[in-house]
Amino acid sequence: xxxxxxxxxxxxxxxxxxxxxxxxxxxxxxxxxxxxxxxxxxxxxxxxxxxxxxxxxxxxxxxxxxxxxxxxxxxxxxxxxxxxxxxxxxxxxxxxxxxxxxxxxxxxxxxxxxxxxxxxxxxxxxxxxxxxxxxxxxxxxxxxxxxxxxxxxxxxxxxxxxxxxxxxxxxxxxxxxxxxxxxxxxxxxxxxxxxxxxxxxxxxxxxxxxxxxxxxxxxxxxxxxxxxxxxxxxxxxxxxxxxxxxxxxxxxxxxxxxxxxxxxxxxxxxxxxxxxxxxxxxxxxxxxxxxxxxxxxxxxxxxxxxxxxxxxxxxxxxxxxxxxxxxxxxxxxxxxxxxxxxxxxxxxxxxxxxxxxxxxxxxxxxxxxxxxxxxxxxxxxxxxxxxxxxxxxxxxxxxxxxxxxxxxxxxxxxxxxxxxxxxxxxxxxxxxxxxxxxxxxxxxxxxxxxxxxxxxxxxxxxxxxx
Length: 466
Hints:
By secondary structure, the protein is of the alpha/beta class. It has helices at residues 35-44, 53-61, 335-372, 380-412; strands at 10-13, 19-23, 69-73, 84-87, 98-99, 105-106, 115-116, 121-126, 134-135, 141-142, 154-156, 158-160, 166-169, 173-178, 181-185, 187-190, 201-203, 206-209, 218-221, 225-227, 235-238, 242-244, 248-258, 262-264, 267-274, 278-280, 283-290, 293-296, 302-310, 313-319, 327-331, 417-424, 428-432, 435-438, 443-451, 454-459. The chain contains 4 helices and 36 strands.
């Protein structure tokens, strides 16, 4: 009985069954373990995969007793890698300008337009990588996640290679990515000035001017208008942002109308209408209307003269100047906005009433056609009613759209504030929701807030002033 095991062989599994440890208890003199006994102990503990017999042989040969050794290891699973696109362009251009150390704004840092050239690679598709399944030392399969493929890129202005992995621009222009859809559109680029020699510009897309825009010219674009130089007494009408790196010298004739935001180094003697916000280093004797906020940045930034309105608020370092030039700062909901809402509601009611009457008239034609068994499709009176209905439906849709925008404006204007980080000089009118305060004494670092129908002035630190 020399080979009989006096003590039970110990086999321990890790909690995830990925490792098995063997311990051989001490034996008496001239007593030994056989390999078959060890293998039987492993089998009894359900260990059957990843056994390293060389370790077992070594333990038996060196009589390694009373100490655990790792004798079996499972195979871990490796999840597959999902497919991905490597984009060769900036998919999220930063439209925020860099603030210099002195507090002024570097409008050259605004990157609103990402350009690509025809034939340029814009994206590369990387296939998914398969993973592999794993197995525990007990033979239990560990499933791995498969790498998921991606659908082809959608959009326009680019081509896909035959293997579906490389995408290249089919034209030179501006590249955008919205909701995973890529669009490359032509851009109108002027390498000099816009003046009488170039004439007025009207373009479906973005316009980029590397020079100045001189007086008397007009730029109309459905996209973003970027001017590297100075814009003079011109008219700019944009469907997106307007970026004036050199500022705007309006000469009381210059106008900017945009459905986006306005960024300008300075604005002087001009008129601005923006659905978004406005950022500039200073404004002088200009009339500004923004459906968002007005930010006048810079260490010595000021709003001097004119009327500046920001629905959600106005912020600047200084309002007015020591010469007490009359300056109007407005925010919140304007009386004319509320009046326009009422007029649009009345117009919408009138349009709907007229559409109802037209539909009644058309029904009478249909009834007459059924009773008399005649075809009235080409009856001039019926055709006239159909045309009138189309026109009224268009009017009603336009009024409804305008009404929705005004209601959004009113909602966003709630809680509007007016803030001067430095000085508010006499000669400045401040109003929120048409509640007006005329500044007669110079104030420093204050914020105006509407409370219970009264315009209250706080210090920028939140302390009540006056």
